[in-house]
Design a protein that fits this description.
- The protein is α/β, with parallel strands linked by helices.
- Helices cover about 40% and strands about 15% of the residues.
- It has 14 helices and twelve strands.
- It has helices spanning about 55-60, 70-75, 120-125, 145-150, 185-195, 210-220, 225-235, 245-255, 260-265, 275-300, 310-320, 325-345, 370-385, 415-435, and strands at about 1-5, 15-20, 35-40, 80-85, 130-135, 150-155, 175-180, 205-210, 240-245, 345-350, 390-395, 400-410.
- Strands 1-2-4-3-5-7-6-11-12-10-8-9 form a twelve-stranded mixed beta sheet, with helices on both faces.
- The chain is globular, with a radius of gyration of 21 Å.
- Residues about 1-5 have low confidence and may be disordered.
Length: about 450
């Protein structure tokens, strides 16, 4: 049943309504009873047009005939849907700015972008408008807005959660994810939405890889996240669990196909990790190829009015001529295998979610090129491997949110959440210690 509501906050909602859970006598015993959630405008809801962040897409598409299984699962577990949220046009940005519908206001840093493309979903949670929200992550669209808005964001293992009745971007990478303000709520939602058996055993991580190059080269030394993570892991799980090897070097030595491309990326503008730049390049090419197959006909027929930055990215994808796709597919297989060997069962990989503070609003695209390149070098790790990744907020420093990410191998999503729950209080303690109480706000 859907009932219309009125009003809007923080520029979050495309439309507000009420999707009520099915009525039952056991209502109060349902795992998500009493929780509200928002839905990115990429998920189908029967009888409503899915807008995909662009008014011409909405105008040229009819109402959905079925509802996304993920939305139905949340409703069946007792949660109430309260509306569709603003997203970047056609999912083609990690900034969160929409030229047609406006930019949701980042409650954590109002002069900075909220992150995209699941911008409205992240802001709805950060602004305390809902308890959790649904987003999608192809290249970073859950992880980035979670980091920018100072909340938790989970990108599950690729292929684990149904993407049926979700507009596709690039099926090789498309992943349904979700946001919450606290780990308790995130875990409640994950227990419902992850189609994995409940694991009652508490498993300690056997190894915690915190690659120095990812933090010192791609991240920001000012926020001290590298030191905070190392101190927290040593305190909680013991120093023997720590592994600080450089990820770029490991990939170069264990992914043979990297050698075909590495020289092209070794002379790039610093700071960069050439091996991760290759990974990012491969992900970008594979995504453009699939985006073209999914949407070229519509773009060429409708010729939509697209906002700045989006226009160039969409047309670049539509004009894309397949590169050495066979090499990219081999690279993907090799990378998955090598990363699985590094992390192993019971291992965790920790990296910066993003390479620094959220960019200021309305920055020129050219000024963001280096930042975006570093961001995608980090984001492509989970993308190409299919591993699960959780962005964890550490607090606000100097008026901007700071986060870190934990990753685990494919299918170890519950283990990842369990480790995060064990480590989080220690992370907060070490963050306060490193920053001082004056600089820290949770």
């Amino acid at each position: 049943m859907a009932t219309e509501l009125e009003g809007g906050d923080y520029g979050v909602f495309m439309e507000k309504f009420e999707l009520l859970p099915p009525q039952s006598q056991q209502q109060e015993k349902l795992p998500l009873h009493g929780l509200t959630f928002a839905i990115k405008d990429i998920f189908d809801i029967s009888g409503r047009v899915t807008g995909f962040g662009n008014p011409e897409w909405a105008r040229t598409h009819g109402p959905a005939v079925a509802t996304s299984p993920v939305v139905l699962t949340a409703l069946a577990a007792g949660a109430t849907g309260v509306g569709k949220t603003v997203m970047d046009e056609m999912g083609c940005s990690i900034d969160g700015e929409n030229a047609h519908y406006g930019t949701p206001t980042n409650p954590c840093a109002p002069d900075r972008v909220p992150g995209g493309s699941s911008s409205g979903s992240a802001v709805a949670v950060a602004a305390n408008l809902v308890d959790f929200s649904l987003g999608t992550d192809t290249g970073g669209s859950v992880r980035v807005p979670a980091a920018y808005c100072g909340i938790f964001g989970l990108r599950p293992s690729h292929g684990l959660v149904s993407t049926e009745n979700v507009i596709p971007m690039s099926q090789m990478f498309d992943t349904v994810g979700w946001f919450a303000r606290d780990l308790s709520t995130l875990s409640r939602v994950s227990n419902v939405l992850l189609p994995l058996p409940a694991d009652r055993t508490t498993k300690q991580p056997t190894k915690f890889t915190i690659p120095k190059d990812c933090f010192e080269i791609l991240g920001s030394l000012k926020d001290q996240t590298y030191q905070i993570l190392n101190a927290s892991v040593a305190k909680r799980f013991g120093g023997d669990a720590l592994d600080n090897r450089n990820l770029g070097e490991f990939i170069s030595n264990n992914v043979p196909t990297i050698g075909k491309f590495i020289s092209d990326f070794s002379k790039r503008e610093a700071p960069s990790v050439p091996a991760l730049s290759v990974i990012s390049y491969a992900v970008g090419c594979l995504q453009r190829s699939e985006f073209k197959a999914n949407h070229a006909d519509w773009v060429n027929t409708v010729k939509p009015n697209l906002g700045p930055g989006i226009r160039e990215r969409v047309h670049q994808a539509i004009a894309y001529e397949d590169g050495p796709m066979e090499d990219f597919h081999v690279l993907r297989i090799e990378f998955k295998s090598s990363l699985a060997a590094l992390v192993k069962d019971g291992g965790i990989l920790a990296i910066p979610t993003v390479p620094g503070s959220p960019p200021k609003l309305r920055m020129e695209t050219a000024a963001l090129e280096n930042f975006r390149a570093r961001a995608f070098s980090l984001l492509a790790i989970a993308g190409l491997s299919g591993f699960c990744q959780l962005s964890i907020p550490l607090g606000v420093r100097g008026g901007v949110p700071v986060s870190v990410s934990l990753m685990a191998h494919h299918g170890a999503d519950r283990f990842l959440l369990s480790v995060a729950q064990e480590l989080y209080e220690t992370l907060k303690e070490e963050t306060k210690k490193a920053w001082g109480s004056f600089d820290y706000s949770s």
